[in-house]
Design brief:
Layout (H helix, E strand, L loop, with lengths): L1 H18 L21 H12 L2 E2 L33 E3 L6 E5 L5 E2 L16 E3 L8 E2 L12 E3 L5 E4 L12 E3 L9 E2 L2 H10 L5 E3 L22 E3 L6 E3 L12 E3 L5 E6 L10 E3 L4 E5 H7 L5 E3 L4 E3 L14 E3 L6 E3 L2 H4 L7 E3 L4 E4 L3 E3 L8 E3 L4 E3 L8 E3 L4 E4 L13 E3 L4 E5 L10 E3 L4 E4 L13 E3 L4 E7 L11 E3 L4 E5 L13 E3 L20 E3 L11 H4 L8 E3 L19 E3 L6 E2 L10 E3 L4 E5 L12 E3 L4 E5 L13 E3 L4 E4 L13 E3 L4 E4 L13 E3 L4 E2 L15 E3 L6 E2 L15 E3 L4 E5 L2 H4 L3 H4 L10 E2 L2 E2 L2 E5 L2 E5 L8 E3 L4 E5 L12 E3 L4 E4 L13 E3 L4 E4 L13 E3 L4 E5 L19 E3 L32 H9 L28 H9 L1
Length: 1002
């Protein structure tokens, strides 16, 4: 979430300035300290040479949330012939004139620092700050260890890489060492030997910050030698593993400890019978056990406590009252439940930051008794309300991801210092309150049930930077010019409400800091023309609107250097796309439009590219081979032709989804999938591909979906795929596969498989019984609730035949299990081992040459919803045990040689004549032929009209069918969400589909 990055920045500033000894005004001092002597010529020359070895990125200039300049080009004042002691960022010794301090933090420097850099000739340096520059992956030179007088060294957030040299340990006078790096940057790392030398020799160290330095190989006992004078220790995101030494927490001067986000770090904190002067503690996302009772009782100095996703011993929030001095508190992601203990939180008079997000809190907000004269915030349990003043110092309140309901209380809009409010993903209803305070910087109310109009006060929040009201029930027409006072807006999301936006009178309005705009599903019929001047825009989402136009030229020129995410899907865009000019695009989504012409190719940086469901023609251009970082490529449902470039297989180190279904590609499947690839979904259904399956598909160890249906592939059954550990969907239907399915060679073949479709091929021989008895995922599925295959940016899609209809599911339920071997030449008997597949929803063996009887044990497959054994050579009667299948809504045994009475009762009373046609010796309802003697219902049959509920679907569909005698299908429930609204695009192909669907929906 954007608010998270906002808070991280705010947290970085607040905690660094409160606890780091390097956060001072000394960075601005220069010539005032050097009045005694001019700068040494050698130092001046070295500084100029150092400056000239870099370029300066002036595009980085921006402002922090508090108005402080983030970027400062100090070197602009460095000019030959002038006293270098007067240069910005330079500090000289008053007596000698030697340069002893250099502060180029956030200076926009770009380039490499080599070991022969003139920087290392400044031998008298005591303070060096190169924070927040871009040294392009330069190694940290061992020459940094030559500054023998150095007391403060800050190389943080500057894109260094490689190992931290042990020569840093030569800086025996160091008081502060900061080598932390940006998350996801080029990795720096340190080994045990170098770390040992650093902590043993730096005995004067007060601050050590190695956040985001890879320490996965470090032995944690190395930290036992840390200086006893240490005040600040920051080791977050370091991949630490194992038990952290408890003795470190006992350092007598320790004020700040940050071990957060070391997921494999264990230990115990704190042990009983000791106290600590700690002021800030972060153990978030570690497995260190926290004794909550002891922590709150003995750590009276704690002001900032961050325990997100932690492991607690003796947790009782009632003891929170002992932490009256607490300023910042994060207890998110801890699975807490029940009511929020408002009495404890709101009585903390110093509380500024509170994060209880992603727990299981329920209930409503308390209300304030405006008639109270109390001097402090108290909670009256008898009245379920606050009495007394509201918490006036609170600046950040985060309650996202809980189950809070009711309305938003008006007192939240009256908090005078509130800067950030996040109530995302709850069940709040009613209107949005008016916000009286003008201090708000971030407001997140998305994914609730809020309705009504956007309140007027929101358009008056001139300091507001981030606003997210998406996924609610807000209504009304909004003139976009109402946001004109919010000139500081960086992030605006109004998507998926019932709003209608108008862009009249906006020709002169701009939002210069806007980097994200999401107006999806806002009833927009035109491109927002005002965006043409938004050259810093990074993310633009206009999907699910009714824009019917060509993509304008000004949009293709928008944010050439900045635009990273663009979503124009589900509109009515026409014409050709033309050349894409965005240099740094990561995400391009143009699905479900009417775009024509050749396939456009985005920038090589793109990781998500979808042009599905358009009218593109022509061959795949060779420039697609430049997209080497692609993770998802979806070009399905177009008219593309030609061959699939073999280079796409080379993307497999990054490519997760390759979806080219329903085009006109011919030739062979790429044979370039290499070992170690991450391909998860390969869908080539509905093309004209031929040849055999490439054996190197076996290298796709992450493969979950393999859909090669409706092609011209000629091969035997790929038994060698049985060892793929994650394969869940295998569709080979309507090809030219032939021959027998051999006995499996592994102990658990296809252990995750829950959809297999081999229909309409030339398979022969006996049914693969040995495979059936080992299909673990079909024997007993452990899935519960609505879970779908796929990932954040992409939902897997599959076309399957359900009860005679070909249905395209845009989401695949993880417990949806079917076997379709129809239209082949399988022979022999049906083994009763199939009845072990308790999770099976559909079974289709029709149009084969099967003989023998229907196994009575089929009556044990309680989840079975359709069973098609038609057009075979089956004999004997229909087992009465099948009447126990209360979920069965489609049954077809026509065109066999069955005899005897048809079972009756429950679902069998709903099947029509065509379920049994062609079996001349069957008798009983619904056939006109009566049996020679009355048939009694099976002893286990119960005379009741209820149906079994399950799987969280709308079973009213089934009840309707059962009551009317014509059950259309339980699986229609797969196409309906819990609120009854359609969620999947359903394509029904079949002779009676319109009439039957009408019956379901009426």
């Amino acid at each position: 979430m954007a608010w998270l990055s906002w808070f991280c920045l705010l947290f970085l500033l607040s905690t660094t300035c409160q606890f780091d000894s390097t956060c001072s005004s000394s960075s601005n001092s220069s010539s005032s300290l050097s009045s005694g002597h001019l700068c040494h010529p050698e130092d001046s020359s070295a500084l100029l040479q150092f400056k000239n070895s870099f370029s300066i990125d002036t595009s980085l200039e921006s402002e922090l949330l508090n108005g402080t300049t983030l970027y400062s080009n100090r070197t602009i004042s460095w000019q030959k012939g002038k006293d270098c002691c007067a240069w910005s960022g330079v500090t000289c010794d008053k007596m000698t004139g030697h340069v002893i301090g250099l502060n180029l933090g956030s200076g926009g420097l770009q380039g490499n620092i080599h070991s022969n850099s003139s920087l290392f000739s400044l031998g008298h340096l005591k303070r060096l700050d190169l924070f927040d520059n871009d040294f392009r992956g330069s190694p940290i030179s061992s020459k940094f260890g030559g500054f023998v007088s150095m007391t403060h060294l800050d190389l943080s957030l500057s894109n260094f890489s490689g190992p931290i040299p042990s020569e840093i340990s030569h800086l025996s006078t160091l008081v502060s060492l900061n080598l932390s790096q940006y998350p996801f940057s080029v990795v720096t790392h340190v080994d045990t030997l170098s770390l040992n030398r650093i902590v043993q020799n730096l005995t004067n160290l007060l601050e050590l910050n190695l956040a985001y330095v890879d320490m996965s190989s470090v032995v944690l006992d190395s930290f036992k030698n840390l200086s006893s004078s240490l005040k600040t220790l920051k080791l977050s995101h370091c991949h630490l593993r194992g038990k952290f030494p408890e003795s470190i927490f006992h350092r007598p001067n320790l004020r700040l400890v940050d071990l957060g986000y070391n997921y494999n770090l264990t230990g115990y904190f704190p042990k009983p019978n000791w106290s600590s002067p700690l002021e800030m503690l972060d153990l978030s996302d570690t497995r260190i056990l926290v004794d909550w009772h002891h922590l709150t009782r003995n750590f009276k100095s704690l002001r900032y406590l961050y325990l997100s996703n932690c492991s607690f011993v003796g947790l009782n929030l009632a003891f929170l009252g002992n932490l009256t001095q607490i300023v910042g508190l994060d207890l998110s992601y801890n699975n807490f439940g029940g009511q929020i203990p408002w009495s404890f939180f709101l009585n903390l008079e110093s509380l500024v930051y509170l994060n209880l997000g992603c727990n299981n809190y329920v209930g409503q907000f308390p209300e304030v008794d405006s008639n109270s004269t109390s001097n402090s915030s108290l909670y009256d349990f008898s009245k379920q309300q606050l009495v007394g003043p509201i918490p006036r110092h609170l600046t950040t309140l985060v309650l996202y991801g809980n189950q809070l309901n009711g309305i938003i209380p008006s007192w939240l809009g009256s908090l005078p210092s509130l800067e950030m409010l996040s109530l995302t993903s709850n069940q709040l209803s009613g209107n949005i309150i008016e916000f009286q305070s003008r201090s708000l910087l971030g407001l997140y109310l998305n994914h609730n049930k809020l309705d009504g109009l956007i309140p007027r006060s929101i358009f008056e929040l001139e300091n507001l930077r981030q606003l997210d009201l998406s996924s609610n029930n807000l209504s009304g027409t909004v003139e976009f010019e109402k946001f004109s006072k919010l000139q500081n807006l960086q992030f605006l999301n109004l998507s998926f409400n019932h709003l209608s936006l108008s862009f009249n009178h906006l020709s002169n309005n701009t939002w210069p800091q806007l980097w994200l705009l999401d107006l999806s599903s806002c009833n927009i019929s035109e491109f927002p023309y005002f965006l043409r001047s938004s050259q810093n825009l990074e993310s633009l989402y206009l999907s699910h609107n009714r824009i019917q136009a060509y993509i304008p030229k000004w949009l293709l020129d928008l944010g050439k250097d900045s635009l990273a995410f663009l979503d124009l899907s589900h509109n009515f865009l026409t014409g050709t796309v033309g050349q894409l000019r965005w240099k740094n695009l990561l995400y391009l989504h143009l699905r479900n439009n009417s775009l024509q012409g050749e396939l456009p190719i985005p920038s090589p940086s793109t990781f998500f590219f979808s042009m599905a469901n358009n009218q593109l023609t022509g061959e795949m251009p060779p420039t697609i081979c430049s997209l080497s970082t692609l993770e998802i490529l979806d070009l399905s449902n177009n008219n593309l032709s030609g061959k699939i470039h073999q280079c796409i297989g080379n993307f497999s180190q990054s490519l997760s989804v390759l979806d080219l279904r329903n085009n006109k590609f011919h030739g062979f499947i790429p044979r370039t999938f290499s070992k170690g690839n991450v391909l998860r979904n390969l869908d080539l259904n509905g093309n004209q591909l031929e040849g055999s399956l490439p054996p190197n598909l076996l290298t796709c160890r992450e493969l979950e979906v393999l859909d090669l249906g409706n092609n011209k592939i000629q091969d035997t059954f790929p038994n060698w795929l049985e060892s793929l550990p994650k394969l869940q969907v295998l569709i080979l239907r309507s090809n030219k596969f032939y021959g027998e399915i051999c006995i499996p060679k592994t102990k658990f073949p296809f252990q995750k498989l829950h959809i297999i479709d081999l229909s309409n091929n030339r398979f022969s021989g006996l049914l693969p019984t040995k495979h059936f008895e080992r299909l673990t995922a079909m024997i007993n599925s452990q899935e519960h609730g609505l879970k779908y295959m796929g990932e954040g940016y992409y939902q897997d899609t599959v076309a399957v035949t359900i009860k005679g209809f070909e249905i395209e599911m845009e989401k695949i339920l993880t417990f949806f299990t079917i076997i379709d071997f129809s239209n082949n030449t399988f022979r022999g008997e049906i083994s009763s081992v199939i009845s072990k597949l308790k999770s099976l929803k559909g079974l289709n063996f029709s149009h084969n040459e099967l003989t023998g009887k229907i196994p009575p044990s089929f009556g044990e497959m309680s989840n079975l919803e359709w069973l098609d054994l038609s057009s075979n050579k089956l004999v004997g009667d229909i087992p009465e045990q099948l009447a126990n299948l209360t979920s069965l809504s489609k049954f077809n045994v026509s065109k066999n040689q069955l005899v005897g009475p048809i079972p009756h009762g429950k679902q069998f009373d709903t099947f029509e004549n065509d379920s049994y046609s062609g079996n001349t010796r069957l008798c009983g309802l619904p056939l006109s032929k009566t049996c020679s003697a009355p048939q009694s219902p099976p002893s286990s049959f119960q005379q009741e009209d209820d149906l079994e509920y399950g799987n969280g679907f709308d079973w009213k569909v089934v009840l309707m069918g059962y009551a009317s005698g014509v059950v259309i299908g339980i699986s229609v429930g797969y196409l309906v969400l819990s609120n009854g609204t359609p969620d999947w695009l359903v394509k029904v192909v079949g002779r009676k589909q319109r009439r039957r669907i009408m019956k379901i929906t009426q």
